[in-house]
Amino acid sequence: MNHQVSSPMSQSMDTPTGRVLVTGALGQIGTELVEALRQKFGNDCVIATDIRESKGCQLLDVMDKTGIEQIVKSENITEIYHLAALLSATGEKNPELCWKINVEGLENVIRVAKKHDCRVFSPSSIAVFGPDCPKLAPQVTPLNPTTVYGKTKVIGEELAINSGIDMRGIRYPGLISYKAPAGGGTTDYAVEIFHAALENGHYECFVREDTKLPMMYMDDAIRATLELMAIPIEQLSEARGGYNISGCSFTASELVESIQRHLPDFTCTFKPDIRQTYADSWPDEIEDNVAQNEWSWKANYNLDKMVDEMIVNLQNQSSS
Ligand code: NAD
Ligand code: AKB
Q: Is residue 50 domain-shared with residue 193, that is, in the same domain?
């Protein structure tokens, strides 16, 4: 069922009428999304913000309601990519802060977006699923996450549908990229392993070798985000709160074997920690037929293609 929302942008989606605001812009996704948005809309059109300081990025704490509104007004913002959050591993260490940033921070953004007619992109995660979900996760299934992080993402999806604004999200799988480090999640091993393989020839992995999780190369995730935001809202169902999208699913040992095609002497040992329990509560794979049907989603990267790109790009980065 399509949901009626009030947005002046619901006709033409591809170019925002005003500027674009990115929160949490210095993180793993923001680093590449800001680049892609600036390429698409022009440098001046994209305002990058984070709670950390960096050149080309304004300071903005998403707990600061007035600060969000000031920037939206002064920069003529009509579209917000809200990436500021705590991820699963960091979030479970400090559940109260995770709730505050992920839920209250999002509510602050929605309040301002509603008042100033902004569209919002707010990521969900495969962490919305719990142990009762089938190993191949369907789009529609009971969402009973065991982590606080997962619970905040379920609330985010509900807010997307019930807030009365044009708000969309994707249940990103674990994202693998070389430009910025992973930000405190359970799937971080699938990023760290590349750095360790190239720098030390060895990695001690914090999940078991048979741990299988949905993963995705960052190029696919950024393309998915831009593609979803370019679709008129009338074409989207309530799945827009958080679309399942599938990239590639593999076990930790399959990842090791794929890296060994490039680095035959690379070794990996497995020493599971608390993050194993979060990984065990998530599905192995994602069914993404709804995203395929509604906005023609299709991933480009399988395991070996992603590994090839990661190794080449990290090698180029260290030699330049
Ligand atoms: P990240 O941890 O790399 O980046 C988050 C950014 O938010 C950081 O730069 C941090 O400084 C900033 N931040 C933290 N608290 C803030 C605050 N109070 N105000 C403003 N900024 C603040 O995270 P990411 O991987 O880029 O994830 C972005 C979004 O995507 C999150 O909602 C996350 O849950 C979701 N997601 C990520 C993945 C993944 O594998 N990276 C997978 C699923 C979902
Ligand atoms: C994490 O592991 O917390 C994130 C995610 C899948 O949401 N990468």
A: no
Our answer to whether residue 178 is catalytic in this structure is no
The ligand placed nearest to the CA atom of residue 181 is 1
Q: Is residue 2 part of a domain?
A: no
Please tell me whether residues 240 and 102 are part of one structural domain. yes
pLDDT in tens, 151-200: 999 999 999 999 999 999 999 999 999 999 998 999 999 999 999 999 99
Residues framing ligand 2 (Cβ under 6 A): 87-88, 125-127, 149, 174, 185-187
Neighbouring residues of 76: CB distance < 8 A, sequence distance ≥ 6: 18, 19
* Beta strands at 167-168 and 136-137: parallel, antiparallel or unpaired: unpaired
Catalytic residue among 149, 178, 189, 217: 149
Give the global pTM.
0.95
Residue nearest to atom 29 of ligand 1 (CA): 83
CA 306 to ligand 2 centroid distance, Å: 18
Give the domain extent around 263: 176-214+247-285+300-319
Q: CB under 8 Å, gap of 24 or more: what pairs does 131-135 form?
A: 131/280, 131/281, 133/283, 134/283, 135/283, 135/284, 135/285
Total structural domains within the chain: 2
Q: Which residue's CA is minimally distant from atom 41 of ligand 1?
A: 175
Find the 27 Cα to ligand 1 centroid distance in Å. 6
Give 119-162 pLDDT, tens digit per residue.
999 999 999 999 999 999 999 999 999 999 999 999 999 999 99
Does the C-beta of 52 come closer than 6 Å to ligand 1? yes
CATH code assigned at 253 = 3.90.25.10
Q: Are residues 149 and 262 in the same domain?
A: no
Ligand approaching nearest to the C-alpha of 279: 2
